[in-house]
Structures are given as C-alpha cells and as structure tokens.
Amino acid sequence: MDFELTERDIARFRSKLRRASVTGCLVFNGAKFPKGHGAFRLPKKGGKQRLVRAHHVALAVAGRSIPAGHDAMHNCPGGDNPACCEPAHLTTGIPKEHGRDRSIKAQRRKSRSGLPFGAVRQRNGRYGSQAWLGDRTVCFGTYDTWAEASALALFHKNSYLFPDPEVN
Length: 168
Ligand SMILES: [Zn+2]
Description:
The chain is an alpha+beta fold. The protein has 2 domains: 7-94, no CATH class; 103-161, no CATH class. Helix content is 30%, strand content 26%. Strands 7-8-9 form a 3-stranded antiparallel beta sheet, with helices on one face. It has a two-stranded antiparallel sheet with strand order 1-2. A hairpin with a 6-residue loop joins strand 1 (17-19) and strand 2 (26-28). The N and C termini lie far apart (64 Å). The relative contact order is 0.11. The model is unreliable at 109-115 (pLDDT under 50). Bound molecules: zinc ion. Zinc ion binds next to loops.
C-alpha cells in the first residue's frame, strides 16, 4: 500500500475515529464501503482524489505495511468490525477464501490441460474419480486410494466416450 500521508491527512483521519468503550474498537465514523469498511478520501497529485480503506490507512499510520498478495484483516475481540481502525485488532495475511479459490482454480487448470481424467484428493482424505469432458466434469464416485480412483477414472472415461455396443 503506497500511501503518502501528510500530517494534515493523518490529523483528518484521526478526527474521524471514535473509541468504542465495550469492545475497544477504534471505529471510523465516516463514509463506508459496501462491506462496511471505512472509506477515507485521500488527495492525489494532480488534483484527483481516491477513496482508500480506512483500516489500511490505520496500518500505514502505525508504520505497518501490507505485503504484496496479502490483505489487512480484522480480529476484533468483540467480533469483527469492518470499520475498526485499531491497529491491535488488525492482522495481515493471505485471505483464507482467496487462497482457497486460487488453489482450486490452479488444480482444475492443471488437471484440464495435463490430464483429462484422474483422481482428485478430497477433504475427507478419499479420492474422487473424475474426467473432464469438454466443459463438464464427470464424477465416477469416491475411492480409498489414489490408484483405484485414477484407474476407475480411465475405465469410466473410456466407457463414457465409447459405450459398449453389446450393453445396449
Ligand atoms: Zn476492533
């Protein structure tokens, strides 16, 4: 986050903060983004303004930076308050949902381009037997071992693509 905060910006930012006595949150009392994060207006060189998330400004004021690919997340003792700007309630890290989304997408891409069929390890430790046919994923059930699931994926994929004429 590349904030260039002037003394005036910082004073204006601080004037919008109110301490919530019960939770200890330092709540931003100003405009909000749709998800409830404080929206702080920063003047930009050239006369343009931009809206930045208030809790990001709070970290910058506290001298903390947000590493690339990371995000600032709330961890308020009284339940997460998106408008909270108390640095002690803020952590930086890779957002859980984002990380999970990315790993699923990466896995799918790899499977699609490399292997049109195969076994996919599931959350419960078992293996799903799957084939990627065009834009569809066909599942052939779950198995205890990777070998079983991948062998059955190959078998099912072939019978799916080339049905045995004797059966019909
Ligand atoms: Zn808080």
